[in-house]
Design a protein that fits this description.
Blueprint lengths: L4 E6 L5 H11 L2 E5 L3 E6 L1 H10 L5 E10 L3 H9 L12 E9 L6 H20 L4 E2 L6 E8 L2 E7 L21 H10 L7 E4 L6 H10 L21 H12 L9 E5 L2 H14 L5 E5 L13 E5 L11 H15 L3 E7 L14 E7 L2 E10 L4 H7 L1
Parallel strand pairs: 5-6, 5-7, 9-10, 9-12, 10-11, 12-13
Antiparallel strand pairs: 1-3, 1-4, 2-3, 4-8, 7-8, 13-15, 14-15
């Protein structure tokens, strides 16, 4: 406990509870749920483990300074007088990202610029040299968060967002974010004890995230670049030990992961991404129009998909979503079907009553994750199965 420090995991709106549950299962302490974030405590090894394993986190921040500011002069002065040399070397490159919820400043780029000025001026005074800025691949990434007059300065331990797992080299139009896909799987309460179908699988993101979830596979184990590797206190030996320990918890999956898409090019990209992920032995996809398919057994199935919303893929919303409902009702009995849509009117056309609707955001689009329980026989029998 003596070596524990506070961290903040960023996520999407609606996934905060999911992320908190993940952190609890990993062993985090003092977990507190915020809006689009969860704070927690752990040691340096836990920071490494969080970056490797958390499915629903976008990035992991380590706060290093809390300030009360009233104007830009305060901001510059506090930044200039902070001991940046404990965190940044002259040889390092760095970049600053600012998030504002305040009336003191209206421009996040201006805040980033003033923070940069304070850091650079301090180094010039102390060493007659300064570290350089790198917007694309900085060694050290700094996060500035200002709410009212409260400013938190944090080190971004992840660097590039944690959704960049490394397997998705091929994409289609409107691919779903990997973190959101993982969040949907956990929100859908899939117990990994049934077949899983994505009937509109696109480039395969939901299927690959489902495979990693079902096997307890650490989502970022193959990722080479984390910003914490450039920190002065980076412990490479500890990091390698933690990588080996999380891999020991990988388990087998004894059901089917299946994907359909009517586009041949989508299936081709999907297969390549599945190969990149290493899960080609448990994921099977094929070219198929969902509306022409049906279950080939009486076993319970779990469906999760991201259909077109009519935003970037033009469709007739009314007929398309009616056909989704008709296909589920006629051909997928004894199933739970979940899908996300930002076209809130579309749910009226499905022709089935959703048992749950969860508010989320897909990018900037307000969306709903809707659940449909497709019964085989009576509702009572179906509930006994669950």
């Amino acid at each position: 406990m003596i070596n524990d420090f506070k961290m903040i995991a960023k996520t999407f709106f609606g996934l905060e509870k999911i992320l908190a549950d993940e952190l609890l299962s990993l062993g985090a302490k003092k977990i507190e749920i915020g809006i689009r974030n969860v704070s927690f405590y752990g040691d340096l090894g836990f920071l490494y483990k969080s970056n490797l394993f958390l499915r629903s986190a976008i990035r992991i921040l380590k706060p290093i300074k809390y300030l009360k500011i009233n104007n830009q002069k305060d901001l510059y002065s506090y930044v200039y007088n902070f001991n940046w040399e404990d965190y940044i070397s002259i040889e390092n490159t760095f970049y600053i990202e600012s998030v504002l919820n305040t009336e003191i400043f209206s421009n996040s780029l201006f805040v980033s610029q003033r923070v940069k000025d304070g850091i650079v001026d301090r180094f010039r005074k102390m060493f007659n040299k300064r570290p350089n800025i790198d917007k694309e691949n900085p060694d050290i990434k700094i996060n500035i968060h200002i709410t009212k007059n409260n400013c938190t300065i944090s080190l971004d331990s992840s660097g590039k967002p944690l959704n960049q797992r490394g397997y998705r080299l091929q994409t289609n139009i409107a691919p779903i974010n990997e973190v959101l896909a993982a969040g949907l799987i956990m929100l859908s309460e899939w117990d990994c004890e049934s077949d899983f179908l994505d009937p509109m699988c696109g480039s395969g993101t939901i299927l690959i995230e489902a495979a990693m979830y079902a096997t307890n596979y650490p989502v970022n184990i193959k990722r080479e670049i984390f910003s914490f590797k450039n920190w002065k206190n980076y412990d490479s030996q500890m990091f390698e030990i933690i990588k080996k320990s999380v891999l020991k918890k990988v388990k087998t999956f004894n059901y089917n992961l299946i994907g359909y898409d009517k586009s041949p090019s989508a299936i081709k990209k999907c297969n390549q991404n599945i190969i990149n992920s290493g899960f080609q032995s448990i994921i099977n996809v094929c070219e198929n129009n969902f509306f022409n398919t049906k279950k080939n057994n009486d076993n319970f199935s779990h469906l999760l998909f991201n259909p077109p919303y009519g935003e970037r893929l033009p469709i007739d919303i009314k007929s398309f979503y009616k056909e989704i409902g008709d296909t589920l009702k006629s051909n997928y009995s004894n199933s739970n079907a979940w899908f996300i849509t930002s076209n809130l009117e579309s749910l009226k056309f499905v022709g089935l009553r959703p048992s749950r609707k969860i508010k989320l955001y897909n990018g900037k689009l307000e969306s709903r994750l809707a659940k449909y329980e497709i019964y085989s026989g009576s509702k009572k029998i179906h509930k006994q199965r669950k």
